[in-house]
From TrEMBL:
The UniProt record lists the keyword ATP-binding: yes
Gene3D superfamilies xref list: P-loop containing nucleotide triphosphate hydrolases
Taxonomic lineage of the native organism: Bacteria, Pseudomonadati, Pseudomonadota, Alphaproteobacteria, Rhodobacterales
A GO cellular-component term linked to this record: ATP-binding cassette (ABC) transporter complex
Protein name listed in UniProt: Iron(III) transport system ATP-binding protein
């Protein structure tokens, strides 16, 4: 599936030209993007790239130095305006869930409903605990909950006041692998059922690809790319995005008359200047083994068993960095075997080599 994601919904949350420095060092540089109502956006990036700072600015616990944040037509920050965090109608869920240890589950969930009539609070608490699948835990205290249960309670608490938008900072990172996928799928289903949009921070590319309607790859305080997950994975706009989103191979070449020649084929490079050093990037699955007569000669260096697949590392006889390709776990090949390699040209992206 390589088609472009559906066009983004009309802007509902708008971030325009937002910057923030700490002690003179820029944490966010001129960030602009928009989110549609009910949309799920992932912020993905390496440690320190500014993901949490951006989330905190939207929540209102941090103020931008420049730019504006608008939600459903209301200016939250910017042009002299500032709406306090509790008046924004935005929910926040942290990595550690931050449940109040001295309150039971029902009281934790009721916390954000203070000031409302008792019967209404009780009804809403029951409703969200039921949809989150934790109504039977209402009387327990946080230390009596498993990781998955704590996550569901935290989600119920965040959703109870009917937020317009939910901000989630690494919400699944405390769960182990198997549980993480289940809780993640349930959380997403719940957000969609309640029609609550969310911005989810993660540093895990596979999580962002699985969860996001659209995904923003951040790098050094800026948004390097923002698009649908399939588009970004298959047609990455930069080498950084390509490499951040998953395994890949890089083969060097030089632009000559609008293309680059490599041992694995000749690829179009219409945007590069004559003589400009270039890199051809492609995913492991774009490479296949073939007869020596029909492909570039290479040797099997090593292989890693991945369960469903075998990731095979090879070197081209012409030299260069090792290449990776994925084979079914049942595939037959031998260590140090001489094989032919074929590359699907449609899966190749050419970038200017930096430096
Ligand atoms: N309150 C603060 N005071 C000083 N520097 C800060 C503060 N908050 C963030 N920073 C700095 O701003 C930059 C961005 O931090 P931020 O926490 O937003 O990154 P992140 O992408 O969320 O990282 P991680 O994935 O490690 O949580 C970092 O260099 C960080 O050290």
């Amino acid at each position: 599936m390589t088609e472009r994601a559906a066009p983004p919904p009309p802007p509902w949350l708008s971030i325009e030209g937002v910057s923030r420095r700490f002690d003179g060092v820029a944490a966010l540089k001129d960030i602009s993007f928009a989110l549609g109502a009910g949309e799920i956006l992932c912020l993905l990036g390496a440690s320190g790239c500014g993901k949490s700072t951006l989330l905190r600015l939207i929540a209102g616990v941090e103020r931008p130095e420049t730019g504006a944040i608008t939600l459903a037509g209301q200016v939250l920050s910017g042009s002299g305006a500032f709406v306090e965090p509790e008046a924004r109608g935005i929910g926040f869920m942290f990595q550690d869930y931050a449940l109040f240890p001295h309150l039971n589950v029902a009281d934790n969930v009721a916390f954000g409903l203070k000031g409302r009539p008792r019967a209404e609070v009780q009804a809403r608490v029951n409703e969200v605990l039921t949809v989150a699948g934790v109504a039977h835990l209402a009387d327990r205290f946080p230390h009596m909950l498993s990781g998955g249960e704590s996550q569901r309670v935290a989600l119920a608490r965040a959703l109870a006041p009917r937020p317009r938008l939910l901000l989630m900072d690494e919400p699944f990172s405390n769960l182990d692998q198997g549980l993480r996928e289940t809780v993640r799928a349930e959380t997403l289903a719940l957000l969609r059922q309640m029609q609550v949009g969310a911005i989810i921070v993660t540093h895990d590319p596979s999580e962002a690809l699985a969860v996001a309607d659209r995904l923003a790859v951040m790098h050094a305080g800026q948004i390097e790319a923002l698009d649908g997950p399939r588009q970004l994975y298959h047609v990455p706009p930069t080498l950084y995005v390509a490499q951040f989103l998953g395994a890949g191979n890089v083969v060097p070449g030089v632009a000559e008359r609008g293309q680059i020649a490599t041992p694995l084929g000749v690829f179009p490079a219409p945007d590069l200047a004559q003589g400009q050093p270039a890199l051809a990037f492609f995913r492991p699955q774009a490479l296949t083994l073939c007869d020596l007569a029909e492909g570039a000669a290479a040797r099997v260096l090593r292989h890693d068993f991945l369960g469903a697949q075998e990731r095979v590392f090879l070197t081209l006889e012409e030299g260069g960095a090792p290449l990776q390709l994925d084979l079914p776990a049942t595939a037959q090949f031998r260590l140090h075997e001489r094989v032919g390699l074929r590359l699907d040209p449609a899966a190749v992206r050419v970038f200017a080599a930096e430096g």
